[in-house]
Write a structure and sequence with these properties.
326 residues; six-stranded mixed beta sheet; 17% strand; globular
Length: 326
């Protein structure tokens, strides 16, 4: 073999070897919205490790917490357009796109983890259908802790909330702010600490976990445990990217996703009380709502439920009917 042919053959062999090495590890990105030590992010890291272990490192998923790769409202579109292969979002931030995404934040519809799990089972087929039309596939959903009110002053009735600078993060929280006469400002979780520190907001509705992540005790004094709803974060995958994987890697993802859903629900049930204890330890007053405040929220909840059903139509009614039969 002359030198030219030898070099050509060597180059071809190297190209084949490099191509094989490159294909030996597929690297995916999974943007997420919450800090690395938040249970959602911890669960995602465990999910990514499970996939890596099951595929012998052939599929490596990098989790990007705290909106470090994409801001929370951008994550879903980033996965739809292939800028990332997977993503995790608070499902209800997309309620303006389709009311079905807001089923889990209908006030006082599901206020325990058991009820929230049933509501997710009732809602999942409709969510899967909607996301499939957008080229996405549902992997798993994990709850937050029950939602309460953070505020800088004591509350006896909903009238005491008039004029508050109220942080909203989805349609439901914006409507609650409007109903009580507060000034609603849309702020996602990663931006909340700065908004509190600068006085952009002085009240909001969220879980003990969000309050802890935001060090809310540095600016606010009260948490009223209204247990208004239990929202969920949804993890999903670009369907075309999933379909392009070998069958064994697809199976590894689905198996790890099922484990992540079970682990995530268990983590939050264990952490819900712990977060409230931490708020108390930092000096916050953690209290149940007064009967008058609870009654006021119940009235608002009934109103918002009717409004949601009117928007969601037959699909929404089917979800509620299925949930109530469980």
């Amino acid at each position: 073999m002359n030198r030219r042919r030898l070099l050509a053959a060597t180059a071809l062999a190297l190209a084949v070897a490099w191509g094989s090495a490159a294909s030996a590890e597929t690297k995916w990105n999974l943007p997420a919205a919450y800090p690395a030590d938040n249970p959602h992010s911890v669960n995602l890291a465990a999910f990514a490790k499970d996939v890596a272990d099951a595929t012998n490192g052939e599929l490596a998923i990098t989790v990007h917490p705290n909106a470090s790769l994409f801001k929370a409202p951008e994550i879903k579109r980033a996965v739809m357009t292939g800028q990332a292969q997977m993503g995790e979002v608070l499902l209800s931030i997309h309620e303006n796109e389709d009311p079905i995404f807001g089923a889990d934040v209908v006030p006082f519809l599901a206020t325990s983890f058991e009820q929230a799990r049933k509501l997710w089972e009732a809602t999942r087929p409709a969510v899967e259908k909607k996301l499939a039309s957008q080229g996405l596939m549902v992997l798993f959903a994990v709850p937050w802790a029950p939602q309460g009110i953070y505020v800088d002053k004591p509350l006896q009735t909903v009238d005491d909330m008039k004029g508050l600078k109220w942080r909203a993060y989805n349609v439901g929280t914006a409507k609650i702010g409007e109903a009580v006469g507060a000034q609603a400002v849309t702020i996602q979780a990663a931006e909340l600490p700065q908004a509190l520190a600068t006085g952009v907001v002085n009240s909001f509705m969220s879980s003990g976990g969000t309050g802890y992540d935001s060090k809310v005790w540095e600016t606010l004094d009260y948490f009223y445990d209204t247990q208004a709803w239990i929202p969920k974060d949804l993890t999903f995958v670009n369907k075309a990217a999933f379909d392009a994987l070998p069958e064994a890697q697809q199976k590894a993802i689905l198996t790890a996703a099922a484990a992540a859903e079970e682990r995530g629900w268990q983590m939050w049930q264990e952490k819900a009380g712990w977060y409230l204890d931490q708020l108390k330890a930092k000096g916050m007053k953690v209290e149940p709502p007064s009967p008058e405040l609870a009654a006021g929220f119940k009235k608002i909840g009934d109103q918002l439920t009717e409004e949601w059903l009117a928007k969601a139509g037959a699909d929404g009614q089917a979800v509620i009917d299925s949930y109530r039969k469980m």
